[in-house]
Amino acid sequence: MFARQMQHAFKTFSLAFYICLAANSLYAKELHVNAETGSDANSGSVQEPFQTLQKGINSAEEGDVIQLHPRGAVYRQSGNFGRRSGITIEGNGVTLDGADPLPDDGWEKVSANLYRRQMKRTPLDRHLLIIDGEMQRMGRTQSSNSPDFPPVAELKPGEFCFENIDEEQGWLYVCGSTKNLEWSTRVNGIATGGPCRQLVVRNLNARNFLNDGFNVHGDCRELRFENINGYDCFDEGFSAHESAECDINGGKFHGNENGIADVNSAETVYRNCEFYGNVNVDVLLIGKEHRLIDCKIRNTTSASPLVAGPRTKQQTFDLVLQRVSITSQNETKPGNVRINGGTLLLEDCVMDNVNLNTIGTEVKYLGTNRINGAVAEVP
Question: pLDDT tens for residues 192-204?
Fold first, then answer.
């Protein structure tokens, strides 16, 4: 019964979503953005593109499609939606980047192989340094058990620390070369705030942001994300909050504190997604209803592969895993998969090298489920 109810709810959501899209497309126009050649004083036509994604969002009306150019470009920008409906972003493989290049010169030499420069304090006082294209967080996260920066004198090559000077400025210390460095300055890649309806984001990447790659806040319904990647962010690659309804089809989430984290009363569906290489949790689901379909969780770090359940005893919680594989590559101990509370449905799933904890959860099985090589049976 539970499985049929969930399937009916998600099918109804998808059907209504596509009917609305079809209706909106009758009146749609295209707006064009080119971060390299555009100007926000332009009309937004293909001949006169805007320069920023935000200008495209602000100019779009219900049914419009925002096209990002050139294909595969890097935009050192963010895009924020507030109280918007029926808008599509066609990313064309563009990457939104939360970091800006740092100058090679202007550094003060502190000692052999140690340099510093005065910088503005970052939003949220979070710090990411990108060295030769590789993000370095110094093991720090937004969690309460995050380590402090090491003392300046103990920095090793490829490491950094940040020391506040006052409420506005601080010192960035870098051990090693000061060439090919980038510093994260933007909070979210794509963000929503307030009621939003029927937004579509596809073929878009978001990296190096001080919070999330994709951050959904507010009463946002019927949001769809297709072929997105959220990675190397201080917090999450994707995160849905409050009463958000999101359908994510095709995505990779790695190098974040948590690959994804959906909370409050969020309802989310992930299809054909991969989660790996995160710091604390690869998949964190503590909202209302969640579903993973044809997904892979490849636990390649000390992070927990999957943590899920209601945040309070009064909250309802439903989780469906269909054809999901969870594999821990940790050779010293199994990965912790913890679903505590609510209802869990497993259908044709495979879990290898994991410690499965479902205390307090009503577990249901469909098809053949294998856990550490053994066929799972109803307790």
Answer: 998 999 999 999 9
